[in-house]
Design brief:
This protein is an alpha/beta fold. The protein folds into two domains: 163 residues, P-loop containing nucleotide triphosphate hydrolases (Rossmann fold, 3-Layer(aba) Sandwich); 74 residues, no CATH class. The protein contains nine helices and ten strands. A six-stranded mixed sheet has the order 6-7-8-3-9-10, sandwiched between helices. Strand 7, helix 6 and strand 8 form a beta-alpha-beta unit. The N and C termini lie far apart (37 Å). It binds adenosine-5'-diphosphate and magnesium ion. The site of adenosine-5'-diphosphate has 10 residues, from helix 1. InterPro entries: AAA+_ATPase, ABC_AA/LPS_Transport, ABC_transporter-like_ATP-bd, ABC_transptr_urea_ATP-bd_UrtD, BCA_ABC_TP_C, P-loop_NTPase. This is Urea ABC transporter ATP-binding protein UrtD. Pfam families: ABC_tran, BCA_ABC_TP_C.
């Protein structure tokens, strides 16, 4: 639907670090249910843009809107409670805990610090935990310690932890980084499946991966949006070739 209001919007978003604009004048409109890919060279401002959107850092100028609500400056926790979940590039799971226990921490069914006092908590997954584990390919590993998981499984566990918090929008920073080819393919499948139920914004710089999930792409360059379009449009855009793809 053409006139549908975007679920997430950046309006003239700028942030400066010691005067240097890491993100400059970025306008972005993500439709409800969209799977959007952000690409760009190292240092283009992609991660900083996600930091701004999830409220981890404050913009120097501009606004962030969640549907009809201006969420600029309301804080990271309030933004998360409003339905925006963020997966970081480096997994931040609890290595000594099992997959299920990590999911329970994420959904507040288990308090990590007092985990021994909470042993009466069910050790069997709830329907929801089982569904999240299934969706991220971790059901067979649900009682395994995170320290025993592969790099790919760790990334999926962190995504599963984000999903346990019931976000409507999921922000992912290079979800396939460091993965094997097989894990990368699986991650692409996982994102396509996720896009059936969530709005997804994903940073990726591997064009092969981007082609696998092939949706609308936003190209960032030196903090700004350089182009937006399909993979085919992006790959034939002279400015994009010159700034990014040509090297
Ligand atoms: P990308 O994710 O596209 O590789 P980043 O968003 O990480 O790029 O970085 C964009 C630019 O902002 C880089 O030049 C980086 O060095 C700079 N930058 C990022 N975070 C900070 C920070 N906290 N303080 C100072 N400079 C930063
Ligand atoms: Mg980055």
């Amino acid at each position: 639907p053409m006139a549908a209001m975007p679920i997430l919007q950046a309006k003239k978003l700028t942030v400066r670090f010691d005067g240097f604009p890491a993100v400059r004048d970025v306008d972005l409109a993500i439709a409800d249910g969209e799977l959007r890919v952000i690409i760009g060279a190292n240092g283009a401002g992609k991660s900083t843009l996600l930091d701004l959107l999830c409220g981890k850092i404050l913009p120097s100028e501009g606004e962030i809107w969640l549907r009809e609500r201006n969420i600029t400056g309301i804080g990271e926790a309030a933004i998360a409670r409003s339905g925006l979940g963020r997966k970081f590039q480096t997994p931040t799971v609890f290595k000594e805990m099992t997959v299920l226990e990590n999911l329970q921490v994420a959904s507040n069914r288990r308090v990590r610090v007092f985990e021994n006092l909470f042993d009466w908590l069910p050790s069997r997954p709830s329907d929801k935990e089982a569904a999240v584990a299934e969706r991220t390919g971790l059901l067979g590993a649900i009682n395994r310690r995170a320290s025993e998981l592969s790099h790919g499984q760790l990334q999926w566990l962190e995504l599963a932890m984000v999903l346990s918090q019931d976000p409507k929008i999921v922000l992912l920073d290079e979800p396939a980084a460091g993965m094997t080819a097989a894990e990368t393919d699986k991650t692409a499948e996982l994102l396509l499946d996720l896009a059936g139920s969530h709005t997804v914004l994903v940073i990726e710089h591997d064009m092969a991966f981007v082609r696998l999930i092939c949706r609308t792409i936003t190209v960032m360059h030196q903090g700004a949006v350089l182009a937006e379009g399909t993979a085919a449009e992006i790959e034939h855009n002279p400015a994009v070739i010159e700034a990014y793809l040509g090297s």
